[in-house]
Amino acid sequence: MNTPTLPNEEKASPRGIQSIEVGGQLLIALAHHGRPMALKDLAREGQMAPAKAHPYLVSFIKLGLVEQEASSGRYGLGPLALQLGLISLQQYEPVRLATPRIEELAAQLQVTVAIAVWGNRGPTIVRVAEAPSPVHISMRHGTVMSLRGTASGRLFAAHLAPAVVQAALAAEDGAEGHKLGKNKDFDEQLKQARAEGLARSLDGVVPGVSALAAPVFDDQGRMVLSLTAIGPSGHFDLDARGPLACALKRAGQELSRQLGWLAD
């Protein structure tokens, strides 16, 4: 006979493995800080002694979740952790929605079109639709784009919170001279990106390669990804009113509306 459940009786939570939960605090600390850490600092963040933290780190290294720098001995997230993060980004709902659209755009515009989202290291390529033409621009999944040197980076810099952008700039070049408001050319590029609804890059990080990027917003008006068209500079139309830019912006606006965004 089934025992009835009393109205105020709480369902017991599933039992986990305590050692995994304890060691997981070290991974959480690495993800939170976003940079390699010394053993003593990492152990402190994980609320345990260094002697206790070390065996966990050894096991995490064997799994690829953590790696240790040979020169400094500091610990950072390993290749498996990065791969898991990339897969998580690829499963992001806006990315699934935008993926078939970039295939259509690549075929229509005859250029490579990529999706970039904001990852823990900055704008990160998570999907690529290659151009059908013989000339291909190599873009790999997981590539982190420069904030100042790429169309995708400038677009995110134009729309994200200044504190987020400033932290990413500091991590990118480690120079105080590139603070927001201190670099007139960069600040003007961000202002132009907001005004035109897209960002551009002519011979940016890779000579002979140009790009246009259009934003996609969610129902809160937050930029969730960029649609980035990439091609050889000699045959790439960077005009904000040209057919390539208009098609890219139109696709971004349509995806934004599907995500619940309402234009002002």
Which tags fit this structure?
single chain, 264 residues, alpha+beta, five-stranded antiparallel beta sheet, two-stranded antiparallel ribbon, 7 strands, elongated, disordered N terminus
Q: What would your notes on this structure say?
A:
The protein is an alpha+beta fold. It has nine helices and seven strands. The chain has helices at 18-33, 39-45, 50-63, 79-90, 93-109, 151-159, 162-173, 184-196, 243-258; strands at 66-68, 75-77, 112-119, 122-129, 199-201, 209-217, 223-232. Strands 4-3-7-6-5 form a five-stranded antiparallel β-sheet, with helices on both faces. A two-stranded antiparallel ribbon has the order 1-2. Strand 5 (199-201) and strand 6 form a beta hairpin. The chain is elongated and about 60 Å long. The model is unreliable at 1-11 (pLDDT under 50).
How many E strands? 7
Report the average pLDDT across residues: 84
Q: Outline, from the CA principal axes?
A: elongated
Multimer state:
single chain
List the helices and strands and how they pair.
Blueprint lengths: L17 H16 L5 H7 L4 H14 L2 E3 L6 E3 L1 H12 L2 H17 L2 E8 L2 E8 L21 H9 L2 H12 L10 H13 L2 E3 L7 E9 L5 E10 L10 H16 L6
Q: What is the gist of this entry?
A:
The protein has nine helices and seven strands, in the order αααββααββαααβββα. By secondary structure, it is an alpha+beta fold. The termini are far apart.
